[in-house]
Amino acid sequence: MDTASKQLSVVCFSHDSSLLMSRVWLMEKMGCTVIPVTSETEFRETLRKYPVGLVVLCQSLTSEECRKADALSRKLSPEARVLVLFSTEQKWIPRGDGVLLDAQCGPATFLSTVRGMLPSLDGLAVAWR
């Protein structure tokens, strides 16, 4: 297996394209390889196609969508950790080693949390550029 195929990506799932792209930009600036998705179908296909180390579920998703995305990521990418960004209306807590973070936390806290959640599993490393 070559190095590229061992690298893990970050998947960021949101219905709000502006917020999605700003979060993607922040994580890419930090050096992560980020795959933005805006639908459940796109999310599922991304999990099937790429090795994923972190899933970021944005506050534009409903609690039910977060539950479904969490279950799907646990099934298709069990090594991936899940970060749920919540708004005041939505406070669903992810299972296991997932993290719940206030979406209004600011870029420094967001990036610090992302960095702390990035895995290094069984010789795999998050794809850094």
The top level CATH class name: Alpha Beta
CATH architecture: 3-Layer(aba) Sandwich
Which strand-content bin applies to the residues? 15-25%
Distance between the ends: 19 Å
Tell me the series of helices and strands, N- to C-terminal.
HEHEHEHEEHE
Which percent range fits the helix content?
40-55%
Taken together, the total number of domains comes to 1
How many H/I helices?
5
User: Count of DSSP E strands?
Assistant: 6
Largest beta-sheet characterization: 6 strands, parallel
Name the CATH homologous superfamily.
Response regulator
Radius of gyration: 13 Å
Class inferred from helices and paired strands: alpha/beta
Q: Can you give the mean pLDDT?
A: 84
Question: What is the CATH fold-level name?
Answer: Rossmann fold
Q: Assembly state here? A: single chain
Task: List segments where confidence is low: pLDDT < 50 over at least 5 consecutive residues.
Answer: 1-5, 121-129
- What would the principal axes of the Cα set say about the shape? globular
Can you offer a commentary on this structure?
By secondary structure, this protein is α/β, with parallel strands linked by helices. It has one domain (3-126): Rossmann fold (3-Layer(aba) Sandwich). It has five helices and six strands, in the order H-E-H-E-H-E-H-E-E-H-E. It has helices spanning 3-6, 17-30, 40-49, 63-76, 107-117; strands at residues 7-13, 34-37, 52-57, 81-86, 99-102, 125-126. Strands 1, 2, 3, 4, 5 and 6 form a six-stranded parallel β-sheet that branches. Helix 3 (40-49) packs parallel to helix 4 (63-76). The model is unreliable at 1-5 and 121-129 (pLDDT under 50).
